[in-house]
Design a protein that fits this description.
Blueprint (H helix, E strand, L loop, with lengths): L1 H17 L13 E5 L3 E2 L9 E4 L3 E7 L5 E13 L5 E14 L10 E14 L4 E15 L4 E7 L2 E4 L3 H7 L5 E4 L2 E8 L1
Antiparallel strand pairs: 1-4, 1-12, 2-3, 3-5, 4-5, 5-6, 6-7, 7-8, 8-9, 8-10, 9-12, 10-11
Protein name: Secreted protein
Organism: Marivirga tractuosa (strain ATCC 23168 / DSM 4126 / NBRC 15989 / NCIMB 1408 / VKM B-1430 / H-43)
Keywords: Signal
Length: 191
């Protein structure tokens, strides 16, 4: 079941990437960005073979500096777990990201621009009664589809920390730490 959802998510990302007509980024980014962040979560500790979907798939970013190439992003988290006998809202929390867009790294005519973010996520799982904090980086690429719309595709390596004994026991870690990896894709409106 998990593999089918992952294949679907990868297929959706490939579809969106193949449908875009992008333009060169020879100007400053706009100050604000609001986007759609389709998120499907499959946790490695989830022995119940559950899949979770974020019911608030929104991202907001405020950008500063001369070319608006430093952004501060907020992503709310309200996951719903799909499971035969125990479905319901599971993880609640949010993510904060600080992004640096490298607009001058390549020629202005090159439509794909690298970006690097540092992120922090806090989540409390209502169904499993565990909490986690995740810290990591988000290297990726940013592209403008037209003057108003853009999209980003990022990797998300990081480390999860489970602060209390119950959470550590649940995910089977003595140190309280476990690795994290994700793929983040969002498309949105710049204003």
């Amino acid at each position: 079941m998990k593999k089918n959802y992952l294949k679907f998510a990868v297929g959706l990302i490939v579809f969106f990437l193949s449908q875009t007509n992008v333009t060169a980024q020879d100007k400053a980014l706009q100050n604000n960005y609001i986007g759609l962040l389709p998120a499907i979560l499959v946790e490695p500790y989830d022995t119940v073979d559950a899949v979770e979907v974020n019911f608030i798939p929104i991202v907001y970013e405020f950008r500063i500096k001369e070319r608006n190439d430093l952004g501060f992003q907020v992503r709310p988290l309200l996951n719903y777990r799909f499971l035969e006998d125990r479905s319901g809202f599971s993880q609640v929390g949010g993510t904060l990201v600080m992004n640096k867009y490298f607009l001058n790294l390549f020629d202005d005519e090159f439509w794909l621009k690298p970006q690097l973010g540092v992120y922090y996520t806090y989540a409390y799982n209502l169904l499993d009664k565990i909490q986690s904090m995740t810290l990591g980086i988000e290297p990726g690429v940013f592209m403008e589809i037209n003057d108003d719309f853009s999209m980003s595709l990022n990797l998300q390596p990081g480390i999860n920390y489970y602060p209390d004994q119950f959470s550590q026991d649940f995910v089977k870690t003595e140190s309280g730490f476990k690795g994290h990896f994700g793929i983040i894709f969002h498309i949105g409106y710049n204003f």
